[in-house]
């Protein structure tokens, strides 16, 4: 019989672990299936995709305007291309204001 270990965990941390596991699993899909999955982007890549500076991206991240992912107990942050596209399609004035 397997041993069950219970660890107290905040719901926010649990959700992040699940999201990260899904993102990592998508990296192991066959090449044809990767097209339908989310591409991980660094801050620099995300800023470039959106046509904004990294400083603006970081500011928006801190204000909660953009979804991002961070592994527990690390400072590493990544963005999912599909999430960024969804946010910008639902809120096009966000990019217009940044590009003024």
Automatic annotation (TrEMBL):
Keywords: DNA-binding. It holds the Pfam family HTH_17. One of its GO terms (molecular function) is DNA binding. InterPro entries: DNA-bd_dom_put_sf (IPR009061), HTH_17 (IPR041657). Residues 41-85 form the Helix-turn-helix domain. Signal peptide: none annotated. It comes from the Bacteria. SUPFAM superfamilies: Putative DNA-binding domain. This is DNA-binding protein. It comes from Adhaeribacter arboris. The lineage of its organism: Bacteria, Pseudomonadati, Bacteroidota, Cytophagia, Cytophagales.
